[in-house]
Amino acid sequence: MVSRSCVTLVELTAALDDPSVARVVLAAGTYALSAQILSITRGMTIEAASTAEPGSVVLDGSGSVLDGIMTINSPGGTVELVGLSFTGVVSYNDGGALHVARGHVHLTDCLLYGNEGHLGGAAYITGSLDGTQVQFTRCIIRSNHGWNGGAIAIEGGSVHFHDCELHGNSA
Questions:
Q1: Distance from C-alpha of 34 to C-alpha of 86, rounded to nearest angstrom
Q2: Alpha-carbon span 29 to 32, nearest angstrom
Q3: Full 3-state SS string of the chain
Q4: Is the pLDDT of residue 35 over 90?
Q5: Alpha carbons 94 and 147: distance in angstroms, whole number
Q6: CB atoms closer than 10 angstroms to residue 65
Q7: d(C-alpha 8, C-alpha 167), whole Å
Q8: pLDDT tens for residues 83-105?
Q9: pLDDT value at 1 more than 80
Q10: Of the candidates 75, 91, 111, which has an alpha carbon nearest to the alpha carbon of residue 35?
């Protein structure tokens, strides 16, 4: 499997579409997603180049009405998101920033803030009968608004929090 470094949204999208890529390293900066949703359909790692600088990689919905910044539907694979910030989404359908439909997802040292979603301001976890699991470790989830779950709406699967901060979220 291949590791790819990305500095633009075009490169990130190409890496997600390339089945040989198992690890994506994002350079510091803001990746503005005005009309595009990042879709992950297999196990892989997406991480900030420098996790020593929290918030250095921002996936920004730019206030756009999207169905989230990222959708994960990865049966049988583990998706790891490390050192990423998710912000600026207004979604009238799913979760503000993140929708986990299937798979095992680990978020470590991530920041989810300033998002709005119909089903969970920061995240919407639908899960399924296949054992979907989501784990948040050292994440900060703040200032999100959801009509059905201020921070996170959970309809299926299991969700675990380890050493996380959740505050200022509203429903």
A1: 13
A2: 10
A3: CEEEEECCHHHHHHHHHCCCEEEEEECCEEEECCCCCEEECCCEEEEECCCCCCCCEEEECCCCECCCCEEEEEEEEEEEEECEEEECCEECCCCCCEEEEEEEEEEECCEEECCEECCCCCEEECCCCCCCEEEEECCEEECCEECCCCCEEECCCEEEEECCEEECCEC
A4: no
A5: 10
A6: 12
A7: 31
A8: 999 999 888 777 789 999 999 99
A9: no
A10: 91
Residue identified by tokens 């050192």 is 83
pTM of the model: 0.94
The owner of tokens 């920061």 is 122
What is the phi/psi pair of residue 169, to 5°?
-95, 150
* Mean pLDDT of the 74-87 span: 92
Distance CA 120, CA 72 (A): 15
Burial of residue 160 (number of CB atoms within 10 Å: 0-12, 13-18, 19+) = exposed
User: Hey, CA dihedral for 65, 94, 71, 58, is it positive or negative?
Assistant: positive
Torsion sign, CA atoms 99, 100, 105, 106? positive
Output the pLDDT for position 52. 63
* Residue carrying the six token digits 């639908």: 126
- Answer yes or no: are the C-beta atoms of 52 and 72 closer than 8 Å: no
